[in-house]
Design brief:
5-stranded parallel β-sheet, ANL_N_sf, alpha/beta, AMP-binding_CS, AMP-dep_synth/lig_dom, globular, 25 strands, AMP-binding protein
């Protein structure tokens, strides 16, 4: 789209912190954890110090033999050094491939095999407890961010390596490979270029620009997700102090925010859901937040209302964007205190003029409506260029400039896009499982998760999780489901037992499979 193309020279991840430090050298980067690859650096650094660390890590990768155009898989224990290692890899012209710490060993091996003999950055804990021995045969060389292993080279042993000049790759060259959520099977490897990433920057950059430069921006996003590589550049290049959270535990977060109150927070929907308890926290950790932002899964209106309630700023707003790893942000909308809890959670907003486009394709020749939704297709210059090793799968979703999202919905006469369900999650006789879940959240405050999946007979089966795992109030449930489509009796699970992706989405197909197996064994 034309506004994404003007002056688009590519994201240039390798020199990102150099450029940010040149503008705002003393701006702080605040962490809630130590970096495995450089624990001596502490939890508070300036942008100048972070830029130096990225340069240092790049020199170690070069000393280990990594060269421009080669691929470096990063799969290690969770931490912000995953993101910094990606920037360091890009700094020497190589291509970082980021794999979530949550992936199991077999899946990691399959994805490393697909990357075709890459360098692998991992750690001793992953090798000792999670990755099978065959990983050494799949990688050209194994490097350890922490710990030691007889068959691997440690980053510590490469300390003091001669610094090397940054390598600038063409903007259309691959600059980063991330993976999809894997909610429907083995994740796909999404290939981003410098130009596609820069195209994603513009729709999201407008939100951060609304916050004063002196105000911190807090980010709790998966370190391997493409969103981190737009949220982070926007924050540091615009001059905001940056808070990076690995832990979303409300107690930890409340203390961090008490010491450095953020003006904007970017986080996963389920993270905001977990932070609902902070509304009544006496430290008022969310009081200074002017903007809440989420660009992942659908978020429930109840959560939006509570976040806005916790802010003491004048006219705070919750910004929800609809998008996907493969295309970036596509549509957006805002909530305010006046339009929060009672707002239609299925409305995900409108596309960004001059930057993104949306169409809904009929499945039966009739106009898509709520009762007869169509396929959501989008277009954006932020679209990935392929799935690594699976280009035919990419081609199945691409139709010229348009991209099939795998979602079902419709557009109102005003152009607002309504998301009803994923194609694979559609249940016969139910307009929208997501809409039912929104309603249940609003009616039962004790719920911290509710997922509706089909049971073995195809009926809607609610799986519920309650705060502190308290038994579900069946009387309250009976009252809450009044007027909703008929459903099977609810099944209660602990939240931690639900299968989740790297961005805390619930793997609905996997959950349905587990429930079926559980009932079969009973």
């Amino acid at each position: 789209m034309f506004l994404q193309r003007i002056g688009n020279k590519g994201i240039r991840l390798g020199t990102l912190f150099d450029r940010a430090a040149a503008r705002h050298p003393a701006n702080p980067v605040i962490l809630d954890h130590d970096l495995d690859v450089a624990p001596e650096r502490g939890r508070r650094m300036t942008l100048t110090e972070v830029a130096d660390l990225v340069d240092d890590l790049a020199s170690r990768l070069w000393a280990a033999g990594v060269r421009p155009g080669e691929r470096v898989v990063v799969h290690k224990t969770d931490g912000f050094d995953i993101t910094l290692l990606a920037c360091s890899t890009a700094r020497i012209g190589a291509v970082p491939v980021l794999l979530s710490p949550k992936l199991d060993g077999a899946t990691v091996c399959e994805l490393v095999r697909r990357v075709d003999r890459p360098y692998l950055v991992t750690d001793q804990d992953k090798l000792d407890h999670h990755l099978p021995a065959e990983i050494f045969g799949l990688a050209r060389r194994v490097l350890l961010a922490s710990g030691s292993h007889d068959e691997a080279v440690t980053f510590a042993s490469l300390a003091g390596s001669a610094r090397v000049a940054p390598v600038t790759m063409p903007p259309d060259h691959p600059t980063l490979v991330t993976h999809t959520s894997g909610t429907t099977g083995t994740p796909k490897l999404a290939v981003h270029t410098g130009r596609t990433f820069q195209a994603r920057y513009r729709p999201q950059g407008t939100v951060a620009s609304l916050v004063g430069r002196s105000e911190p921006v807090a980010i709790h996003v998966s370190f391997v997700h493409s969103r981190m590589f737009t949220a982070m550049p926007i924050t540091i290049l615009q001059g905001h102090p940056m808070i990076i959270l690995r832990d979303d535990d409300p107690e930890v977060v409340a203390e961090v925010f008490r010491q450095a109150p953020p003006g904007l927070i970017e986080a996963h929907p389920n993270t905001f859901l977990r932070w609902e308890v902070l509304v009544d926290d006496p430290r008022r950790p969310l009081a200074n937040v002017k903007y809440f932002s989420s660009t992942f899964d659908a978020i429930h209106p109840r959560t939006v209302h509570l976040m806005l309630k916790a802010s003491r700023r004048e006219s705070p707003q919750f910004v929800q964007m609809y998008g996907q790893s493969e295309v970036g942000p596509i549509a957006g909308r805002t909530y305010s205190k006046k339009r929060g809890a009672d707002a239609d959670g299925r409305c995900v907003g409108s596309p960004f003029p001059g930057m993104t486009g949306v169409r809904v394709v009929s499945r039966d020749g009739k106009r898509p409506t709520k009762s007869n939704p169509g396929y959501i297709e989008v277009r954006s210059d932020g679209r990935i260029v392929t799935y690594l090793g699976e280009h035919e799968r990419w081609e199945k979703q691409a139709d010229g400039e348009w991209w099939r999202m795998g979602d079902l919905g419709y557009r109102t006469k005003w152009g607002c896009l309504h998301l009803l369900d994923r194609e694979v999650d559609e249940i016969e006789g139910v307009d929208s499982t997501l809409e039912i879940e929104d309603t249940l959240f609003a009616r039962i405050p004790e719920l911290v998760e509710v997922i509706i999946v089909p049971d073995e007979d195809g009926r809607p089966l609610p799986v519920v999780c309650t705060r502190d795992d308290k038994p579900l109030d069946l009387a309250a449930w009976k009252s809450a489901v009044a007027g909703l489509p008929a459903m099977a009796e609810p099944v209660q699970w602990k939240l931690d037992d639900l299968p989740q992706t790297a961005t805390t989405k619930i793997k609905r197909l996997e959950l349905a499979r587990l429930l079926k197996a559980e009932r079969t064994d009973a």
